[in-house]
Design goal:
By secondary structure, the chain is of the alpha+beta class. The chain has one domain. The protein is 24% helix and 31% strand. Strand 8 and strand 9 form a beta hairpin. Helix 8 crosses helix 9. The longest helix is centred in the C-terminal third of the chain and has 25 residues.
């Protein structure tokens, strides 16, 4: 049977943007004025790394009817104003759409009138793709907290703090009018001991949508650091169960992998039945959950790895040079033709299974990978043409049963229910 008319169902699933229901969090924590609870619901991190230079863009959702609140993120140094900016959220949306798990469609040929033998497809072609107050300063100094810098960046009022003790930092933030999540002092201590600074960005909610969950404009930071990591422990302060994080990484060479947790690939290149198409988000959510449990809830999963000037198949057009530069690939400013490798990682983490911050490593591995699922539509016309039609119907019955078993194994769905849905869909 020769499949024909291949299509890619684009924009199928966006993990971390609400298509798959899960509680997700940010690699820092939120502190809110008054006694209000804030929970992260979606977290996406964009990281460009070359040598010891890192550019990181953070996107998170928030919940809470607050006049203003802040996010706190440990950074390796006191950042200069030129090293802080606001990114266009469409850039991260572009990388997400380009690298999202995808469903590829094929259509069976008419077994009674088969087409000529297909010529191998051409290889995928690249697509071109505020001044401090004395009262505040003296209070900080008394608590071992130093206000290293203050900046105004868009709707963010940013303060860079250093501290000598975690309870002093916690007390300072409390005195400044913020409600600190329970356990913050204990979690802050290792970062203070390591000599890290604290990036505190207040947000004026009058400038953003304050109803329900809303996405903040992404903050971008650039710095040099020997360590290549994300502070998961700090992010868990806002946890309300297991959390998901999607990391979009750009390097000059090959894949980015976890250095201190096991690495795994999500199941890919599996044939699944037609009925999955309208519920592909649910299918992938169940598939990821099953893979996550199979790996003992301790793995960092690879969902996509490719040079971002081509793809096969493409869920959306690859990002162009300007978009890659906006995403943080700073080396392209000097040489637009320089190499870039894109890695998409997905980690679901909790306090029980991720007891350390997530450390990364750059590798020379440039092998392509994508979370891809294949849906082959059966021929719907008349197959009463003797032996060819009879053989097709026999092969199709076997294929559908294989697809049912594959789907049940991937998702944990009941096999009898899967078989019934295949039958009903036809």
């Amino acid at each position: 049977m020769n499949p024909r008319n291949r299509y890619v169902w684009a924009g199928i699933v966006t993990v971390g943007l609400g298509v798959i229901s899960s509680v997700t969090a940010f690699c820092g924590f939120y502190v809110g004025r008054v006694d209000a609870k804030l929970y992260n619901k979606a977290s996406q991190i964009m990281i460009a790394r070359d040598g010891e230079r890192t550019t990181i863009t953070m996107v998170s959702d928030y919940q809470g009817a607050l006049k203003d609140f802040a996010l706190v993120v440990p950074v390796p140094k006191v950042l200069k104003r030129a090293e802080i900016g606001i990114n266009d959220s469409t850039i991260i949306d572009k990388l997400d759409a380009y690298s999202a798990p995808r469903l590829v469609e094929y259509f069976d040929a008419d077994p009674c009138n088969p087409p000529p033998p297909m010529v191998a497809e051409d290889a995928a072609k690249p697509m071109t793709a505020a001044a401090p107050t004395m009262k505040s300063e003296s209070r900080a100094n008394a608590l071992g907290v130093t206000v290293e810098a203050r900046y105004s960046v868009g709707e963010y009022a940013i303060v860079i703090l250093s501290a000598t003790q975690s309870d002093g930092l916690e007390t300072y933030l409390l005195q400044e009018g913020y409600k600190i999540p329970v356990g913050a002092s204990k979690v802050l201590a290792p970062y203070i001991k390591a000599g890290m600074k604290f990036f505190v960005a207040k947000v004026n909610l009058k400038k953003v949508d304050s109803s329900g969950f809303s996405k903040l404009r992404p903050i971008r930071m650039s710095f040099k650091s020997k360590g290549f990591m994300l502070p998961l422990q700090l992010g868990m302060i806002n946890a309300n169960g297991a959390q998901d994080l999607t990391v979009y990484s750009l390097t000059r060479k090959g894949r980015v992998e976890a250095a201190n947790y096991q690495n795994a690939k999500v199941p890919s290149d599996k044939n699944i039945p037609e009925f999955v198409q309208p519920k592909f988000g649910d299918f992938y959510g169940a598939t990821f959950k099953k893979a996550y449990e199979r790996e003992g809830k301790k793995a960092v999963f690879l969902e996509y790895a490719w040079t971002p000037n081509s793809c096969d198949p493409c869920a959306s057009e690859p990002p162009d040079v300007m978009q890659l530069r906006a995403a943080g690939a700073f080396w392209l400013a000097e040489n637009p033709n320089d190499s870039v490798f894109f890695t998409r990682l997905h980690v679901r983490y909790d306090k029980a299974n991720f007891k350390e911050d997530l450390m990364f490593k750059q590798t020379d591995n440039t092998e392509n990978f994508q979370a891809r699922y294949i849906m082959q539509h059966p021929f719907k016309g008349n197959t009463n043409c003797g032996q060819p039609g009879e053989q097709y119907r026999k092969d199709l019955k076997t294929r559908l049963e294989t697809e049912a078993q594959t789907t049940a194994n991937l998702t944990g769905w009941n096999i009898d229910s899967v078989r019934q849905q295949i039958k009903n869909f036809r």
